[in-house]
User: Fold this.
Amino acid sequence: MPQAQETVLEIDLKALEYNYQLLRSKLKPTTKFMAVVKAFGYGSDAILVAKHLEKLGVEYFAVAYAKEGIALRDAGIKTPILVLHPQPVNFKRIIQHCLEPSLYNARVLKAFIAVAEAEEQKEYTVHIKFNTGLNRLGFWENDVDFIVGKLKSTSSIKAASIFSHLAASEDLNEKEFTKNQINNFRKIALEFEQKIGYKPMLHQLNTSGVLNYSEEAQYDMVRCGIGLYGFGNDEFFTSQLKNVFNLKSVISQIHMIEPNESVGYNRAFRAPHFMKTATIPIGHADGIHRALGNQKGAVAIKGKKAPMIGNICMDMIMVDITKIDCKEGDEVIIFDTQEAINDLAKSANTISYEVLTAISQRVNRIVK
Ligand SMILES: *Cc1c(COP(=O)(O)O)cnc(C)c1O
Assistant:
C-alpha cells in the first residue's frame, strides 16, 4: 500500500475472507451462514463487504434497518437480506426491495400482514423473532398460538425461519443462563413446528455463540458479525482471526512548543518541557472518541507511540512526537492490528464493536 496522504480506512478483504472461512470451518457443511453487515458493515463498508461475501457464497445477509437493506439492493446484492429491526413505516419499501423482515411482536406482525395483503403478496418471506432472555426484541414463548393463528389466517406471508438471540454468549460465567435460552428456544421451535405444520429454519447463534455453543445450538443457520471483522470473544480466538481495518492518516503540521505553553481547546494540555507536537486530520467527528484525549489514546508514527494530548477536537487531534523523528506529510497509523483496536477500546472504556462502528462516513474507505 502506498503511504496515506489523508485519513483513510483500508479494508482488507483478504482478511475478511480468511475470517469467513475460519468461522465456516467451525460449522457443519450444511449450516447456512448469515453475514451481518449492519451499521455499514461494522464500520467498514457494507457494500464492499457484501459484494465480496456474496461471491464467496454466503447464504444470507442481515442488517438492522430497512434503509441498510435498500442500500445493498441498490448496489446489486441479490442474496436474501434479513432486516432485524424494521418499522412498519418502511414495510412497503421492504417488499419493494425484496427484503425479509424480522417480525418481533403483535404490532409489527399485524402491520406487515396488512401491507403484504394490500400489496397482493403470496407467501412473502418473513422471519419470526423470539425473546428468550435478552429482553430486547421478540415474541414471548406463550405467543406461539397467536402467531400461528395469524400465519394460518393469511396466505400473504410465510415464516421462513424462527430465531432468537443470546444475551451473554461470550461470557462463560453465564453458561447456565445461556443453556437455558438455548433450551427455551428449542422448546418454542418444537411447539411452533407442530402447530404450523412445517419446519422453518432455526437460528440462534452470533459469533460468540458459534465459538461457544455450536454443538448444542447450531441449527440451520448462524448469524456472524464481529468475527468476520476480526474479533472473537477472547484473545485466543481473536489471534486466530485476521485484522480487517487499517485506519491511517497523515501529519498536517508540526509545532515546537515551549515549556508552559498549552495545546488545544480549554488549554487542557500544558507542556511540562520543550516539546514537538503533530496535528492529525482526524477528530471526534471521525470516530476518535473524546475520552481518548489527554494521553488516554495514542497513534503510531514511524513505529513509535505518539500519545494524544489535550482535548480531541471535532476534526483533528494533536499528538506528542517529541521523541519521534518525523516530518509533515508522514503517515500516521491510528490502528492496523486488532490489539491496537482493543487498546483504543479499553482506553475509551468501550468495546471493539464501538470503535469500529464509530468510524464516520467522512473517512474514505479503500480496499487494501
Ligand atoms: C448484531 C447481531 C448479530 C451479530 O452479532 P456478532 O456478535 O457481531 O456476531 C447477530 N444477531 C443479531 C440479532 C444481531 O443483532
Observations:
- The CA atoms of residues 42 and 357 lie 5 Å apart.
- The chain has two domains: 13-240, 245-367.
- The two ends are 7 Å apart (CA to CA).
- The mean pLDDT is 97.
